[in-house]
Structure prediction request, 525 residues.
Amino acid sequence: MKFPLIVSLIITAISLRFQPCKAAEPDAKNLFTIMEPSVVLITDEEGSGSGVVIGAEGLILTNYHVVNTPLNITVEATVEENGKTTRKTFPNAKVSKVHHTNDLALLKVDAPGVRFKPAKLTKNASDTAAGGTCFALGYPLIPDENKPVITITRGIISAVKRELNGVPYIQLDAAINPGNSGGALINEKGILIGIPTLRFEGSDSIGLASPLLNLKMDQFVDPKDRKGDPVEAKRLAGIAESLYMRDALSLGSNDEAVAVAIYLQRQAIALEPNNPELSLSLAWMYRRMQKYALVRAYAENSVRLAPENLRARMLLADALSALKEPAKAAQQRLECLPLLTDQTEIKLRQALFENLASELSSADDSVRAVYVVSWSLAAMGNTPGPAQRLVLQKAARTVPDDFIQKIMAKKSGHSIAEMNELARNAPKAMPSPAPAPPAATPQMPPVTERNTIVTKEVTFDPGWTATLVDAPSGVHYNEQKGVIEWKPSAFGSTLEVRVLFLLKNESGEEKFEVHKVEIQGTDKP
Prediction:
């Protein structure tokens, strides 16, 4: 009885010893807990992406196309500060280096006293095996979602070595969605083996990640030294331009075409970041969408790369004006003046002068505003338009009349240096008397000139013909009587008005004169 039992036990032991063991399933929940602090959210005004911490002092690895932007970059990460784990936002992160061929970049966060949690980087080829389990972590953006949240998706490594345009990739079937780009691709041990980079639209379960095995710091260069792919950039920009023109032909009704054009143009810029025309084209596309902060960013980038590009500077000025920054807009237009040539389109020159004068006036830079009006009339050979007349009318409140007339009498030889000199040495107009303090209770004004028509006789030099070009509401010039007639508002507080005349003589010369009409009644303080 004992022998068969012993034999049975031995056989059982042998069968158990040689029975294949079932591999333990990777614990996705545990891997997520370990990796979450190492994966960061990267945002700018255009959108969002992901990154992975590889240095405790704030060094982050991500895709180049995520951070290839002139916009301010913000990083949100889980960090250690004062012995506590906290979630913090870091503005003004800077791109320090980019990979010379692959779609990778190093982002640096300047955060003294804060410690980031680096991911564990791959060091062995065995970490990445075809058929092995992998996990992708990042911040995919869901439409209409206010803020992305970190996610983890499981998949397998379909191929270890794939090439696209000569660039190596890891192929995987884990979901890679917009916003996942730049995040983490880890194996079942939690080792960082790649950076999810792109997916094939229209194909199921085909995603690509940039491999990290054998990645070295000396493979990264300054962003301006990256060669890129000008041929592919030109191809993508050409498609983007076609879509943009399709919207123009549909009279600006095809927002979807413009959105796709913007996406392709951004990809083109990633391939050739130092091409100013690519940034300028993208700025125009954003102008069509009325996203003026983005217009400003890409127009500034174009100007930085090509400072003498007149259209880039004018577009930048337009964006600054739309953003209610008239002084900065005016400065950009001033930079445009030396760039004008005889070949510059008349409409372009006219728009430059008119907008510049208006912006200087809005910035209370009255002398230079008047000078620009004078410069415009000398260069264009025309008479003041409505916007220019308003500039002169406003300037007359703070600049003496004779000084305005001196500037307007100039017919040639205008320059920025002279304009700045006049602005520095301009005399100040006498301030208007302060209005009387309001009465404790509303009272009707006494019956004075405020309730009647105020007149003033005006005369002009012999041989000159006068034309009224600008006057406040209620003012009329009676040419037959040679008088200015003004009917003040019964409830107004204005005590005087200024009237602008354009004078011409038989030889064709022109000059301006300003005449003042004052209330002389008892209600004047």
Notes: The two ends are 132 Å apart (CA to CA).
